[in-house]
Amino acid sequence: MPLFGSPRNRSLFNRRRSSSPSITKAQTHSTSPQKRHSLLHKSGSEDASIVAARERVMSAEAAEREADRALFAAKAAVREAREHVKALEREAAEQARLAKAKQQAARGLGKRGKALGRHDHI
After folding, report:
1. Per the record, where are the segments of Low complexity compositional bias (predicted)?
2. Which of the residues 17, 57, 84, 110 has an alpha carbon 20 to 30 A from that of 95?
3. Residue 105 domain-assigned (yes or no)
4. Is 43 a domain residue?
């Protein structure tokens, strides 16, 4: 027997595909307003220092998440910059190789050009 829903469901987050207007338990709960309680937000009166401390902890957690996002973005930017520099180095090396080949070809033509006109002194 499957743990979550009918055997037709393939995943935990699969939506119901039937078009029948039947009301499920989840639908009846979503229409009535509910108070949600978590471990950090307890009902009843709490000491102001506890509330302030909880807010500071939650703020620090949000700041940590934002710092993690910024660190990830910075690492990605560094990686991209390094890849760009490597590509430029490869391109420059290829251009240098082509320039060297062109220089050697020109030198060879220069030697052949010096031999021209040897009959000019007649």
Report:
1. 1-12, 98-108
2. 110
3. yes
4. no
Start-to-end Cα distance in the chain: 110
Residues 19-74 pLDDT 10s? 555 555 555 555 555 555 555 555 567 899 999 999 999 999 999 999 999 999 99
The pTM of this model reads 0.46
Helix (H) or strand (E) holding 54: helix 48-115
Structure tokens at 111: 């030697």
How many Å apart are CA 59 and CA 114, to the nearest integer? 81
Q: Which H helix or E strand runs over 75?
A: helix 48-115
Q: Which amino acid is at 32?
A: S
Two structure tokens written together for 83: 């890849």
20 found inside a domain: no
